[in-house]
Amino acid sequence: MANSRLDIIIFGATGFTGLRTIPELVRIVDKEKLNLKWGIAGRSYDKLKNSLNQIKQRTGFFFNVPIIISDINDEKSIRDMTSRTKLLIDTVGPYRNYGEIVVKACLETGTHYLDISGEASFQEGMQLKYHEDALKKGVYLISSCGIGSVPTDLGVIFLQNNFKGTLNSVETYTSLREEGGPYTDPMGHTGTWESIILCLAYPFEQYKVRSKLFKIMPKAEVTPKLANKFIHKCRVTKKWALPLPEPDKATITRSQKYLYQLYNQRPVQVENYIEVNHFLYVPIMMIIGFLIVFFSQFSFTRNLLIKYPKLFSFGLFGHEGPSEERQNNLIYETTLCGEGWPGKLSEPTDKFTTKPTKKIVGKVIGRNPAYGATCIALAACAITLLVEKDKMPNNGGCYPPGAAFAKTSLIERLQRYNFKFELVSN
């Protein structure tokens, strides 16, 4: 029965992200000469067919692949879809609203699951509920396989792999810049905006889930503690930085807890920041951020934020999404600043008697973070899971990408497809 399944189905292939994942998946499959069978799924056959036609118009290639009809509001159709594939790529968000039904169907049908969720409460809730079941059934459930949080989570793994000694902490600094312009179209699609709003909307629920989850995950007290800085200048990039706690910090923390549990590896502490070029932008970002967080807490104002994304995001998000030109001219750069010691201790929880004396700096760079890099990362994670399953932990479970792919060649695969991981200094 399993042999008759497709290898991969992309669910939500008519959506803004799902549509752009198709050519990236095909590019990797062709480049690596893999014999994989894949298909697409969604609610409307005509729209799915039209998605393939759009790709043909843009790339010149037409794919005669299975088209599966599946409605997120119909549990049976979701189970039927997941039963037809070994691995499901889920691009139907927000995941708070639509993710769990797909996760449950994947568990029931023995199907691996990947998504691009940036919603920490969803990711942690799924781990809390379904990790043990996934372990027993040999199914991998891996969230956050897009721009949040592959560059930072795998970036920390990259630093760990290149640090000769004991890495204690990493601070990540992410900046965006655009080439060309000015642009009149939005920078992001409304689906991304809605996920951001829902991620901010339920802080007490998220705190409750995280508290439960971290109580049952392994603990390792490491010192010295990494301080959370507020407004400051990055010592490497010389840009002004503000804290960016979600979702990357939570994702990396879970990965590091798993690496300690799985491989007795000393967990790395992390803090994440977003950068701006001029101090003038700092108070503007703080005011806008505060208003968005505040309005997200109440159903009436939250619905207004979601209904009128262009108005409340000051034109950054819209229903039509960004043009291809603007997508391809947006460049992201994450600088990772690590500190530790040149030596190692016998146990990961042993304490050094001196302050960290060794530094390392790395970078992850790419284009089109929301819809180009995200789709590449998602497709690369899917391929890696299928071809390097023997290098992944426990033959199943619910993991962040860093923990899931730490021992695989995912970083090398990403570097072949427009991601750049580099050491600046060591």
Supply the key terms.
single chain; 426 residues; alpha/beta; 7-stranded parallel β-sheet; 7-stranded mixed β-sheet; 17 helices; 16 strands; globular
Question: How would you summarize this macromolecular structure in one to three sentences?
Answer:
The chain is α/β, with parallel strands linked by helices and 426 residues long. The protein is 45% helix and 21% strand.
Low-confidence stretches: none
Give the total of beta strands. 16
Main structural class: alpha/beta
Approximate helicity band: 40-55%
User: What is the CA–CA distance across the termini?
Assistant: 50 Å
Chain oligomer state: single chain
Globally, the shape reads: globular
Mean pLDDT: 94
Q: Main sheet, how many strands, which sense, barrel?
A: 7 strands, parallel
| Main sheet: strand order | 3-2-1-4-5-6-15
What is the radius of gyration computed over CA atoms, rounded to a whole number of angstroms?
21 Å
Tally of contiguous helical segments: 17
| Estimated share of beta-strand residues | 15-25%
